[in-house]
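Chain entry —
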Amino acid sequence: MTECIFELIGTLVLVLLGDGVCAAVSLNKSKAQGAGWTVIALGWGFAVMTGVLIAGPVSGAHLNPVVTLGLAIAGVFPWSAVGGYIAAQMIGGFLGACLVYAFYKDHYMATADSPDTILGTFCTAPAIRSPWRNFLCELMATCLLVFVILALGKHGGTDFGAFPVTCLIMSLGMSLGGTTGYALNPARDLSPRCAHALLPIKGKRDSDWPYAWVPVLGPTAGAALAAGLYLLVF
């Protein structure tokens, strides 16, 4: 239970700071409006780092259902703990998104005439909508994420703390994030998408549920592939 609580808190902070940087850069009258993709990639990297610093010593700081699944498939995490971790991560992602809305509420109201912008502060959307290509992008990026995490663990990289994963997230965002917004994590996309659907946001649009399967199934398939490659290589 303690490990699950830390997964919840770590994921909450990850989404609070990650969706927070999206809100800061995108919403009207924000002092950071227009700061650009580099700031978003850096912000998400530091968001992951903060979550890892909080949860790492207690739970291992998966902070992502597909990381938990990939580690279990690779045999380095017990299947008996998978359900609790994933539930905690999804709840944490939902609560983190709600806190972003509470924090930036005035700016959401000032952006009521741009529903796509509002949605983009909660969840991802493709630059060019091509669902199976978008699925492949999410699969490949998440496969790299989980494979590197597994390799770091194999080679003792966890001794360096949160720094390697922070650099990895920043690199993925800058190099592979341009097509889909690099969800990589259902707790970062599906949970905030549910928050968007439920919160009383002025001027919001639908939550783009026809696309929602891509940032869930793409990362899930990518994590499973990474685990298989890890078992094959190591």
Observations:
- Residues 2-233 form a domain with the Glycerol uptake facilitator protein fold (CATH 1.20.1080.10).
- The radius of gyration is 17 Å.
